[in-house]
Each structure stands twice: as C-alpha cells, then as structure tokens.
Amino acid sequence: MRLDKFLKVSRIIKRRTVAKDVSEQGRVWINGREAKPSSTVKIGDELAIQFGQKTLTVRIERLGESMRKEDAGSMYTLLKEEIHS
C-alpha cells in the first residue's frame, strides 16, 4: 500500500493530499529512511511522522483499502510520541 493512502485510511492524517504534502516535505520516515508519498508500506514497518513540534512513531499492524472510523486505530500501534521544544 502507498504511504499517503495508509496515512489517510488509518486516519493518522485526515486527507490524502495533506499526507502527500507532508511526505514530500521530508517529514515522514519508514524504518529510519526518508519516505516519498508513493513509498510502499507493509505490516511491521515503523513510521516516524513529524507534526510541527511533535514526532509520532507507529508500527503498522494491518493494511486495508478502506477502514471504518472505529477500526482505523487498529491499523497501527503507537510506539512513541515526542514533543520537541
């Protein structure tokens, strides 16, 4: 699955265009490597996403083309949430 689509379906980022923009700005890493919006993600990958002063690190648990809002949280496990000053 494409990175930008995963971020949208899992509701980590609400819109695919925003997910694409964040990835293009170099603010997303897959397993420690900078990722592009078209990068492929798979189960077990660790994503680090930088939102302003906050960095979220998650592990992908499930993939799916579409997911109900209640089930979206089960697509990943939050590993770490860091706030930078």
Automatic annotation (TrEMBL):
Pfam families: S4 (PF01479)
Entries under SUPFAM superfamilies matching the protein: Alpha-L RNA-binding motif
Keywords tagged on the record: Protein biosynthesis, RNA-binding, rRNA-binding, tRNA-binding
Keyword RNA-binding among UniProt keywords: yes
Location of the RNA-binding S4 domain: 1-65
Keyword rRNA-binding: yes
Function field: Key component of the ribosome quality control system (RQC), a ribosome-associated complex that mediates the extraction of incompletely synthesized nascent chains from stalled ribosomes and their subsequent degradation. RqcH recruits Ala-charged tRNA, and with RqcP directs the elongation of stalled nascent chains on 50S ribosomal subunits, leading to non-templated C-terminal alanine extensions (Ala tail). The Ala tail promotes nascent chain degradation. RqcP is associated with the translocation-like movement of the peptidyl-tRNA from the A-site into the P-site.
Subunit structure: Associates with stalled 50S ribosomal subunits. Binds to RqcH, 23S rRNA and the P-site tRNA. Does not require RqcH for association with 50S subunits.
Family: Belongs to the RqcP family.
The protein's name: RQC P-site tRNA stabilizing factor
Lineage: Bacteria, Bacillati, Bacillota, Bacilli, Bacillales
Gene that this polypeptide is encoded by: rqcP
